[in-house]
Amino acid sequence: MYSKLLRIQCEINRIERERIRQIEEEQKARKEKEVKKFRELLTESNSWHQSVILNQYIEEVERRALIEESITEEKKEWLAWAKEKSEWFNPFIKKADLILGNQDRNSFYAKLDISLGNR
Predict the structure, then answer these.
(1) Cα separation of 16 and 18, whole Å?
(2) Which of 31, 51, 95, 112 is the most buried (most CB within 10 A)?
(3) pTM of the predicted structure, to 2 decimals
(4) C-alpha span between 86 and 95 (Å, rounded)
(5) Which stretches of the chain are DSSP H helices?
(6) Under DSSP, is residue 108 helix (H, G, I), strand (E, B) or coil?
(7) What is the pLDDT of residues 67-80, one digit of tens each?
(8) What per-residue confidence (pLDDT) applies to 118?
(9) What does the DSSP 8-state code read for residue 116?
């Protein structure tokens, strides 16, 4: 009788440990999913912010060239090129680029080692 109760108690304990393990695994999976989504959000917002900075820089280069009356063909070509790259990098536009293709913009950004802390 005692051994039967002991086996039942052991089984109850095993089932409870399994239930707790399953809950912990589900919580871990939810947390990992949430962290991944947040990293994607942060990466996209950083890409957008960088594209805004690029656009501001390009506009300033163009503005200064107009003021100084120094818009050469080379400068026009550079401005067009720079605008194309900025539109390619912008996560809202994601314009196709013949040379860079469908390369992941975020990994490209990381490969350049440009981040908020490493400039």
Answers:
(1) 5
(2) 51
(3) 0.68
(4) 9
(5) 2-67, 73-89, 105-111
(6) helix
(7) 999 899 999 999 99
(8) 52
(9) S
Q: Which residues make Cβ contacts (< 8 Å) with residue 75, sequence separation at least 6?
A: 61, 65
pLDDT tens by residue, 1-34: 778 899 999 999 999 999 999 999 999 999 999 9
Q: Which two tokens stand for residue 57?
A: 């820089």
Two tokens at 102? 């469908």
Residue listed under structure tokens 């908020």? 116
Exposure string of 61-80, with b = 16+ CB inside 10 Å and e = fewer, is ebeebeeeeeeeeeeeeebe
How many Å apart are CA 29 and CA 103, to the nearest integer?
29
Joined together, the tokens standing for residue 75 give 């400068």
Going from the C-alpha of 18 to that of each of 12, 14, 15, the distances in angstroms are 10, 6, 5
Amino acid identity of residue 74, one-letter, is E
Cα–Cα distances in angstroms (integers) from residue 95 to residues 84, 85, 102, 111, 112, in the given order: 8, 8, 10, 20, 20
